[in-house]
């Protein structure tokens, strides 16, 4: 049998980061002040909001993209992840896994105090713990078509939601997706935790040890390990 790689052809396109940032900046400028820690910090660059507006800057013939962080280890065929696009419900434009630490329990502290019965920031399966953007499925065609999603990119809508939720983040695109997901969960296809098994435990030692395991638990065979916050990934 002929090796699989001999049957495939690939096109590799290298993009200039400065050119992408130049295109992105007018779209994401307003949200940067809400979702980064300030000028000069790690997530302050427009490139960390690339996924938010990918549908605006990629050629129309590109309809679906998987965007991933570099600190990943794959235990399954990436083709199986691509097939998750077929599971998107009507109206969903982005596939993303839940955040596996109580990051947003902390970030939404004021909203949670004012709304003690809220699901915002609560752990799964019934809560809304927020999202982690280490593994993203972007249905660019659906993002382009979605009137709702594109309205949410407008500075006025970003301001309205950040005021409602008293939101001030520092993690770029995943902060935006998390906040929007609290208001419009129908825009997201939630990936199983095994597609983005995050390993960082920073929040366990910073005030949330009593609830940490409720967020961190992930049952099932891991398909992608995510060594976020420089956490070592298990060896084979």
Notes on the structure:
By secondary structure, this protein is an alpha/beta fold. The chain has 10 helices and 7 strands. It has helices at 17-35, 54-57, 78-82, 103-107, 109-114, 140-145, 147-152, 155-164, 173-183, 212-216; strands at residues 64-68, 72-74, 94-98, 131-139, 188-191, 197-198, 224-226. It has a 4-stranded mixed β-sheet with strand order 1-4-3-5. The longest helix has 19 residues, at 17-35. The protein starts with 16 loop residues before the first helix and ends in a 10-residue tail after the last strand. The model has no long low-confidence stretch (mean pLDDT 93).
Which terms would index this structure?
236 residues, alpha/beta, 4-stranded mixed β-sheet, 3-stranded mixed β-sheet, 10 helices, 7 strands, 33% helix
Topology of this protein?
Layout: H1 17-35, H2 54-57, E1 64-68, E2 72-74, H3 78-82, E3 94-98, H4 103-107, H5 109-114, E4 131-139, H6 140-145, H7 147-152, H8 155-164, H9 173-183, E5 188-191, E6 197-198, H10 212-216, E7 224-226
Order of SSEs: HHEEHEHHEHHHHEEHE
The number of E-state strands comes to 7
Strand residues, percent: 5-15%
Task: Output mean pLDDT.
Answer: 93
Q: Indicate the overall shape.
A: globular
Largest sheet: 4 strands, mixed
Q: What structural category do the secondary elements indicate?
A: alpha/beta
Q: What's the alpha carbon Rg, rounded to whole Å?
A: 18 Å
Q: Helix coverage percent of residues?
A: 25-40%
Number of helices: 10
Segments where pLDDT lies below 50 for 5+ residues?
A: none
Strand adjacency order, main sheet: 1-4-3-5
For the termini, the CA-CA separation is 28 Å
GO molecular function: xylosyl alpha-1,3-xylosyltransferase activity
GO cellular component, one term: endoplasmic reticulum membrane
GO biological process, one term: protein O-linked glycosylation via N-acetyl-galactosamine
Protein name: Xyloside xylosyltransferase 1
